[in-house]
Specification:
mainly alpha, two-stranded antiparallel sheet, Alpha-Beta Plaits, about 230 residues
C-alpha cells in the first residue's frame, strides 16, 4: 500500500515506546540497513547483489523479557505502515540449535580423545616395558632406584603428549583460520571464538595432556614394570 509515511513512523514509534515490556527501540532507515548489510556480508557475493531499495526500513526492538514477543506481534501486526513483525530468535533458532549440537559433539569428541590418548599411552608403555624387561632387570640388579628405571618410560609419555598436543593445536588453528576467512564474514552477527580462546584452550589441552599422560604412565608402570 505504498511506503510508510513519516507520520506513521512517528506514531508507531510512540506506541512501541509506550509498551512497558519494551527496553529499547530504534528506527533503522533503508540507508542504515544497507550499510549494516554490507558490513555483515563484506567480501561475499551476497553483498554485491543486494541494492538499498531491496532492504526495508524497520524498528529494532529489545524487550525486557523476550518471551513477551507475542504482545508486540499482536499489537502491531496488520497495522498500516507495518509489513510484518518478526522475532529474530525464531529466525536464528535453528542456527543456534545447530551450534549447540556442534558444541556438544565437540565435547564428546574431546572426552573420547582423552580416553583414547590414555589407552594409547598405557598400551605403548606396556609394550615398551615388556620389550625392555631385560634392561630393567639389569638396572634392578645393579641397585638402580625405581624412579631411575621408570624415568625413561615417563619421558616417552611426555614426548608423546607434546607431539599429540602440537597436532591438536595445528588442527584448532586451521579451524580458526577457516572460521575467520569463510564463515565469520557471512555470519557477522555471531561471535565466534577468538585467537585468545585458541591459545587459552591450547594451554588447557597441554595441562590436561600432561595430567592424563602422568596418570596413565604411573598406573601402567606399576602394573607392568615390576620395580
Amino acid at each position: 500500500s505504498g511506503p510508510t509515511t513519516p507520520a506513521q513512523i512517528a506514531s508507531i514509534q510512540d506506541d512501541i515506546k509506550a509498551l512497558p515490556i519494551v527496553d529499547e527501540v530504534f528506527f533503522e532507515t533503508q540507508a542504515e540497513a544497507y550499510k549494516h548489510f554490507q558490513e555483515q556480508f563484506k567480501g561475499s557475493s551476497i553483498a554485491q547483489n543486494v541494492t538499498q531499495d531491496q532492504l526495508p526500513q524497520s524498528f529494532r526492538i529489545k524487550l525486557k523479557d523476550p518471551t513477551k514477543f507475542a504482545v508486540v506481534q499482536s499489537a502491531f501486526s496488520g497495522r498500516p505502515g507495518i509489513d510484518s513483525v518478526q522475532d529474530q530468535r525464531a529466525i536464528l533458532d535453528k542456527f543456534f540449535k545447530l551450534l549447540s549440537v556442534l558444541r556438544d559433539g565437540a565435547l564428546l569428541i574431546g572426552i573420547a580423545s582423552v580416553l583414547t590418548a590414555a589407552l594409547l599411552i598405557s598400551n605403548t608403555l606396556r609394550v615398551a616395558a615388556f620389550n625392555r624387561r631385560r634392561e630393567t632387570g639389569v638396572m634392578k640388579l645393579v641397585g638402580a632406584s625405581s624412579f631411575s628405571i621408570q624415568l625413561p618410560f615417563l619421558l616417552e609419555g611426555v614426548v608423546s603428549t607434546i607431539i599429540g598436543w602440537g597436532v591438536s593445536v595445528g588442527f584448532l588453528s586451521a579451524f580458526k583460520y577457516l572460521i575467520d576467512t569463510r564463515v565469520s564474514p557471512l555470519l557477522s552477527f555471531t561471535r565466534f571464538f577468538t585467537w585468545t580462546d585458541v591459545w587459552v584452550s591450547s594451554a588447557y589441552l597441554l595441562l590436561i595432556g600432561f595430567v592424563v599422560s602422568s596418570i596413565a604412565s604411573i598406573v601402567t608402570l606399576r602394573r607392568h614394570l615390576n620395580v
